[in-house]
Amino acid sequence: MAERLSADQWAAYWKNRTITSFHGAFTLNYDGAIKTYWETQFSRLPANARVLDLGTGNGALALLAARYAHDHGLDFRITGIDFSDIQPMELQSENPLLKNICFIGNTPMEKTGLETGSQDFIMSQFGFEYGDRQASIREIKRLLVPASGRFAAMMHHQDSAILTQAREALQQIHQCEKSGLTEIAERLVELQQQVAGNRPLTALQQQQAQQIQHQLAQGIEKLTRYARQLKDPSHVQMFTHNLMQLFDRRNATRITPEQRRQAISLLRSENENYRRRMKDLRSAACSDQEFTNLQRDMKKRGFLIEEIAPIKYAGQHFAHAIAAVAPQ
Asked: pTM of this prediction?
């Protein structure tokens, strides 16, 4: 069963001021083989091409197109559509060319509302696979200029390095929750709140506080040992670092018990949000059979499939790409 994020959940993600769907990565937008692939696609377009980005998010791919047009003296008219409430204009100070793109949020790729035959090129970077395939193909066919219009998409593949990382991330999230550290931390904060309220701890409570502190330290050390076994332990490291900062003696007077409680709640929420993102990604990824089915469905609609191939980034399988020409 698909485990997909809702439009509201994606909207919350795009408010994080990230240009891509890889928070913390590609801070300067897609590069390397990814950028090269798209620039090859852009090079085939007329100087005044009308370009549509499906599942645009905060405009990472649309921005690549705008930069290519700017650098080559072209006049691309670029539109980005997404089914959630996106926030690309929040990134305009770092990426001025975003102002040249028409962004339309809260609009599904299956029903864009754009004019028939109005697009020379329709593209998607990790967006097409999140929609309804049959309905999206019909809409793409309707929107493209017959015979010359082009479609290209880079999509998640179930055997890519991204999916491997997603599966590892889900394991890290599970280990963080299994540790019970947020619950242990909350019990310690309860005792700290009592002290902050000028209610001294009883001898028994003082003993309990020491035991809880010991449990917290043991739990963090156990997760730290687990992290040493991982290739990319970033989530576990974030989790343990935040907890250690909360209870570092140097922060004892700078962080109130209520602030600690709020931070623990936020940490638990971040854990859950990250889990949903990784499950969403895993659910959207395509198998080889699904790519075969996609080719079949597009051919039935009259598309000429030019290419379907893996894309490598940093020496690893990153995604699968498909390119096609619209029917007559």
From this structure: 0.87
